[in-house]
Amino acid sequence: MKKWIVIIVIIAVVVVGAGVWYFGFRKADTASSSSTTNPDLAVINGAHLLYTVSATSIGNYLPLVGSVTANAYNIGPYISGQITNVYVQQGQLVGLNQPLASLNPLQYQLNYQEALNNYYNALLSQDASSVILQYKLALQLAQQNLGYTTITSPATGFIETLNVATGDFVNAQTQNANLVTIIQNTGMWVTADVNEVDLADIKIGQTALITFTQLNNLTLQGKVSFVQPFATFQSGLTVIPINIKFDKDPLKYGVVYGLDCNISLLLSVSKGFLIPYQAVFTDQSGQKYVLLQTASGYQRAPVTLGTQSGMMVQVTSGVKNGDVLIMKIPSQFQQSGSPFGGNNAHHVGL
């Protein structure tokens, strides 16, 4: 199901309002019979705000749910032997090529020294070139295995699992002998599943807004980087997995591997007007209207509303760019010392 969302500039930031706010307060006049019969005067003569209407970009979007993922490295031994040292702990941040653990190197040192002696003896004996090559390759293999006695990290990241301890014997021949799993903390992306009915709307490079409710509704921008070329069947639905790449490094904003997120995949962008819902009133017939500030005071203007999102609502007709609306202040803000009243208030004349 497609919904509406507000975007500004190149859709880099989700905004709450489109206009310029003027904070004002006007002390309520003594109640009169006219204010009793005209509900508009209760707003005009009481605490109120002025809101300047401004055109903004409104995007039609497809809501999705996704999660943050990253490259995972399952690290096992290339050779067999006993673990003599483990240098890291679960959850630790490690760097590229940082030592993780080491095996007893004694046997591999002996193998290397023997291969080295054989190679030199072959050179001194002026053996056939094929024999010399054989000893040279054996030396290279022994040197490589000696290097494998130190297990190192293939990437910068966090240790997700650690399945080895000092004294353990590890076997290179054992399948899936994963000693350490490292989650790369650079280059994270978001994965999500798109229903098959929306496949035609998905394109590489499409802008997405990624929101993390667990991080105080942090919203980051990204772009679709991959659309799986075949569908899968999950939970009774046919879906197409997609990847979304962050435009900025999410680590700087506290995003970590595995977090769930809400995604707004933008489908189209158009110009429109969004106004605070507190600026909308309803007459006795049910008609929605706003109060326009004029040189002589105010006037009602009927409006047609679109979708409401939070404190803002889309106006499809009835206002134009530059209109100044008179709106009531939400009751929770009408407290002394609040931004809309008390010592922080400003008087405005109508």
UniProtKB/TrEMBL annotation:
Domain Multidrug resistance protein MdtA-like barrel-sandwich hybrid: 74-181
InterPro entries named in the record: MdtA-like_BSH, MdtA-like_C
Lineage top rank: taxon: Bacteria
Pfam families, alphabetized: BSH_RND, RND-MFP_C
SUPFAM superfamilies documented for this protein: HlyD-like secretion proteins (SSF111369)
GO molecular function terms attached to this record: efflux transmembrane transporter activity
Domain Multidrug resistance protein MdtA-like C-terminal permuted SH3 as annotated: residue spans: 274-326
Keywords: Membrane, Transmembrane, Transmembrane helix, Transport
Entry GO CC: efflux pump complex
Residue runs in coiled coils: none
Bilayer-spanning residue ranges: 5-25
Protein's name in the database: HlyD family efflux transporter periplasmic adaptor subunit
Organism annotation: Mesoaciditoga lauensis
